[in-house]
């Protein structure tokens, strides 16, 4: 929806031996936020760009999730030729733009208070903006007549809102500070004149139009993929025995926090200090990636070594060259800096079928369902039953 200079933060990653307990974290995943989205007031997460980690519906305030689902259904009334609009698309945008308005009060009718404002686009350089945008709404939506600033959970510029904004809440006013109205406006804007968002190329084009940055597109797509995976529970109707025990145990831990060095055969535990990016697990009771797999397999009576790299040697190895189609439910799935060398494996998850895995991604996240292609460096799998 606007051009912006971006910063990208990345987690470090690796497998280390600390206090005789080797732990793992994920591959780096870029986080970027528009310089225009710097929050005016101090909501949680604003200090790191308003981005909080976690890719499940559990990290979305229920009232916001309701708005996304409602907008995905309503948009065809306004853009009848639009195809493929779904709530994870809107959630991906809102995650990057405002972190789902977390820290704000969301009324039953959808109004968000305090209101969310981006930085003042007066060319001052504050927040990264270098281009002055003259006021277009006399401060009606952005609270100032001196220049423009993006508003609401989807960070519309007032000039864009004039064409995209529609009333979805039923109060006969299209308000970008109302989550229902804002979500519908975003859906309309993304649909354009009738895009088919089931096609990846058109989805990318829609996101690029929303904010003309390739980093932004990659970041939003990553969140869309995570929310899409989280929206689907794996089909376990043909899974039984130890495999079912492993998967159900892992799935039961969804929402548990990532803890560097956390988790063992008995369950979640406090972790250790510190990850390559300096994140300590000493005050967090939860799991890292190999702690989760160790626990899930222990419940099925299958002991595992503690590190992701060591777990690759614990069963029948499934070469990466066979592709992810060779995986079966219950398999361990690995990721490495150099996929041909198991010694460089840095991450492990549990494959549940349908292209999904149970994953404890990295510090700041929770155990969740992710696409198997959410990580880089696919290094094959291992079958232990």
Question: Can you describe what's shown?
Answer:
Helices cover 27% and strands 14% of the residues. It folds into two domains: 38-230, Lysozyme (Orthogonal Bundle), CATH 1.10.530; 241-383, endopeptidase fold (from Nostoc punctiforme), CATH 3.90.1720.10. It has a six-stranded antiparallel beta sheet. Strands 1-4 form a two-stranded antiparallel sheet. The protein has helices spanning 62-78, 87-98, 158-164, 179-191, 200-210, 214-230, 241-251, 289-299, 308-311; strands spanning 6-9, 15-18, 21-24, 31-34, 105-106, 112-113, 269-270, 285-286, 316-318, 332-336, 345-353, 356-359, 368-371, 378-383. It is an alpha+beta fold and 385 residues long.
Tags for this entry?
disordered N terminus, 9 helices, endopeptidase fold (from Nostoc punctiforme), 2 domains, single chain, 27% helix, 385 residues, six-stranded antiparallel beta sheet, elongated, alpha+beta, Lysozyme
